[in-house]
Amino acid sequence: MPELLIELFSEEIPARMQARAAEDFCGLLQKALAPLMTAAPRPLYGPRRIAAVGEMAARAETPGKEERGPRIGAPEAAIEGFLRKHGAARDALTQEGQFWALQKPGQVIEAPALIAEKLPALLRGFPWPKSMRWGTSDFAWVRPLQRILCILDGQPVIFPLANGEDAVHGLASADLTEGHRVLAGTEPFAVRGFAEYERLLRDRFVIADAAERERIIEEGINRLAAAEGLQVVPDRGLLAEVAGLVEWPVPLLGRIDDAFMDLPPEVMRTTMRVNQRYFALRHPDGRAAARFAVVSNIIPQDGGAAIVAGNERVLRARLSDARFFWDLDRRQRLEEFLPKLDAVVFHAKLGTQGQRVSRLESLAAIIAPLVGADRALATRAARLAKADLASGMVGEFPELQGVMGRYYALHAGEDVRVAEAIGAHYRPLGPGDAVPSEPVAVAVALADKLDQLAGFFAADERPTGSGDPYALRRAALGVIRILRENGLRLGLADLIAEAFFLYPQATGTTASPEFGMAVATEKLKTGWKAPSDSRHPPMVAAFAAGLLDFLAERLRVQLRSEGARHDVVAAVFGAAPDDDLVRLLARSDALARMLATPDGANLLSAYRRAANILRIENRKDGPHDGAVDPALLVAGPERSLAEAVAATRAAVTAALAAEDFLGAMERLAGLRAPVDAFFDQVMVNDPNPELRRNRLRLLNSLCAAMDAVADASKIEG
């Protein structure tokens, strides 16, 4: 197939936008050229260019089709309008039944013509997060667009970007691009295909592939670090960003003044990363090294001495600023920052950070004994957890919240467990981040996340399919991971209700009738009933159940990412919603083990067969949910099945109550033999209506026995 190469060459594109723009461009290109391009092209991107390379057919013919027109005898104006719409003459019409019809011939689509037709509109409507206009044109791009390279099968495809009277600065496609602005100059050169494009760009000091630039940077700084017995602190995000800032990467090493080496390593790393895009280095034992790596975009004539010296001067100034905040913040105790939080808004609907601190203290005190933490220490840690938000260092570097609180707490002489809890309560920050394990830290971390979830759900600021601005999915996954990885047995429904009641909108004279009701009402509409032993008002219990559904869904997402049986969790949760996630997972694991056995798999098939029969027969004269009449059990297999179901239901109920989940599943799997015999030897829809009804009730009791364990309809496979 002919090769298509398109490059959009512009002024420097922000690194954070490049990868997404290249993917969007390839997806839009495939959609626009769909008649001839069946697979998405390969994306390429860099500081000054977004490109795509792929294959497409040279031509294609679309099949003809018949267009039905007005009814026979319709007004002449209707017929003329139909003909104008399709650009046809009157003699092209034929009569098909009661209507006029027009046979439209197929079209031959030529690739160059399709490209020239579709690309201008695609580029004018390109979805940049931010874009700009320049000159007098209405055309918008992330930065001024300078060239459009478009090559198909070695030949340029020429099309203007003009739109009506807007000439768009005279931009039109061609076969030209440019190399490195400094090392190769601005002289354009022509290409005839991707291989030549990649080779000629490399000759002009441009690495077209972002992945290759990342590899060059990573290998280069690792080599320089290893030569001095050091290691590079891993940072994939920074690596990808720097690869988007340079076209010809040249790694260099600089030195950090010894006067700054007493700063916390997190402060130095954040200063270097956020302000200058430098890579931090460390000794093999983990200590911060007095070195940093910087990546140049040119080949220095002096080996990099001038570039390194300039970056060292800039870094000294940045670290001096960090030193100022570090010294200033330590002049007061961490607790003295707290009054400032009363003026910091947490969320317009949820009050201030000062009010949040009070809630965290109360919630941490409730959670502490449940996780084996000292109540006084957990309360103290919760009180101080957000204090560093008012510090100068965190004001300058928000990424250091929690980290600086830990340092300032240790400096003020707080208990080490309190300090560590302050530093760890935001964790886990992502899939690769460790969860807190020390009980005080666990109590504060859970309090922080449950308060966040309860508050935003009660204010109806829930995540949507297109966004999660308050990181509630991450908070939910944090709760799940803390409980799973620490093996904690907690009743989440009660804790969610406690978190809900800590908001003034939920209690007393300031209670709002809207607070939490959207979630509760949605849950009640599903037919949910409050547990008989619930100690909370029905609407609050419904709110907690709604939020618990969200947590269960996040658990299934996590299990899916791990390759585990997430469908089994959905089945168990559907049968008996459980707010003890560790118990829920143990029960699900036992069910998954049973389903992996021949008895379990066959029993699931039998259940589905019984459920299908019941669904069909219930439509006729159901429901068939009454008690089974022993006197009507005339066949041996149905008597055996009835006895087995009754015994199994009692045994399974007892085993589940004792949390003997494996035992419960073993008893359930024991139904396989009597179920097989029943279906082999007994006709369910017997001509005798009484026997038929009784056998349907027996099948219903079989399904009910399994439904007590899991909603088998949610089990895949």
Automatic annotation (TrEMBL):
<keyword id="KW-0547">Nucleotide-binding</keyword>
<dbReference type="GO" id="GO:0005524">
    <property type="term" value="F:ATP binding"/>
</dbReference>
<keyword id="KW-0030">Aminoacyl-tRNA synthetase</keyword>
<dbReference type="Pfam" id="PF02092">
    <property type="entry name" value="tRNA_synt_2f"/>
</dbReference>
<dbReference type="GO" id="GO:0004820">
    <property type="term" value="F:glycine-tRNA ligase activity"/>
</dbReference>
<keyword id="KW-0648">Protein biosynthesis</keyword>
<comment type="similarity">
    <text>Belongs to the class-II aminoacyl-tRNA synthetase family.</text>
</comment>
<keyword id="KW-0963">Cytoplasm</keyword>
<dbReference type="GO" id="GO:0006420">
    <property type="term" value="P:arginyl-tRNA aminoacylation"/>
</dbReference>
<dbReference type="Pfam" id="PF05746">
    <property type="entry name" value="DALR_1"/>
</dbReference>
<keyword id="KW-0436">Ligase</keyword>
<dbReference type="InterPro" id="IPR008909">
    <property type="entry name" value="DALR_anticod-bd"/>
</dbReference>
<dbReference type="GO" id="GO:0006426">
    <property type="term" value="P:glycyl-tRNA aminoacylation"/>
</dbReference>
<dbReference type="InterPro" id="IPR006194">
    <property type="entry name" value="Gly-tRNA-synth_heterodimer"/>
</dbReference>
<dbReference type="InterPro" id="IPR015944">
    <property type="entry name" value="Gly-tRNA-synth_bsu"/>
</dbReference>
<keyword id="KW-0067">ATP-binding</keyword>
<protein>
    <recommendedName>
        <fullName>Glycine--tRNA ligase beta subunit</fullName>
        <ecNumber>6.1.1.14</ecNumber>
    </recommendedName>
</protein>
<dbReference type="GO" id="GO:0004814">
    <property type="term" value="F:arginine-tRNA ligase activity"/>
</dbReference>
<comment type="subunit">
    <text>Tetramer of two alpha and two beta subunits.</text>
</comment>
<feature type="domain" description="DALR anticodon binding">
    <location>
        <begin position="604"/>
        <end position="702"/>
    </location>
</feature>
<dbReference type="GO" id="GO:0005829">
    <property type="term" value="C:cytosol"/>
</dbReference>
